[in-house]
Amino acid sequence: MADLKLCYMDDPLLRETSAKVETVDRYLVEYCERMYGFMEALRGAGLAAPQVGRLERFIVVHRSILPPAGDEVLVNPIITFESDEVMTDEEGCLSFLSVADSVTRPAAVTVEYVDLGGEAKNMEADGLLARAILHEVDHLNGVLFADHLSRLKRKLLKDRVRKRLRELEVEGKAGHIKI
After folding, report:
1. How far apart are the C-alpha atoms of 29 and 31, rounded to whole Å?
2. Is the pLDDT of residue 144 over 90?
3. CATH number for the domain including 31?
4. Total of domains in the chain
5. Are 79 and 106 contacting, i.e. CB atoms less than 8 angstroms apart?
6. Alpha helices in 25-117 (DSSP H)
7. What is the pTM of this model?
8. Which residues are catalytic?
9. Distance (Å, rounded) from C-alpha 47 to C-alpha 39?
C-alpha cells in the first residue's frame, strides 16, 4: 500500500459523501491500522477516511478519548441521538493543519456502528469524544468543521490555513499533503 496522504481544506474530495462499507475484511483492518498510526503521528483526536482520500464510511478515534472498552474504529457510523444540551469549544481539523476555532455541537451523542470484527454496536459519548465523533461523521457527509462557523470566521480560518500552506510550500488550492 502507498503512503497515506492528508487531503487538506480545499480538496474537492472532502465535499463528497462517502459510500457505505459493504465488507469488513483484513484489507480494511490493515488500512485502519495504518490510518490510526497516521492520525497518531499527526497528533489528531480522530480521522475520517475521506481525509486520506478514501470515500468510504469509516473513522478512527484516538484511544485516549475512548471509554475503556471503546472501539478505535467505527465503520458505517450513524448518529442516533444528539443531546439538546450543547457545548462550545475549540475545534481543529488535521485537514485544516490543526488551525482551530470555536464550534458549538451537541454535548452528548449515541452512535451506531460496526466494529472491525463485523459486530454491530452502540456507543454513548459526551465531551471531547462526542465532539470528535460528530466532527469525523461530518467528514463522511462532505461537511467540514468550518461550515459550522459564520462566513467571516470561515474566511479568516481559511486565510490562516492558506498562509500555513504557503509556509509549508504546498501549492495550489486543492491537493494533498504527504506526511
Report:
1. 5
2. yes
3. 3.90.45.10
4. 1
5. no
6. 26-41
7. 0.91
8. 136
9. 6
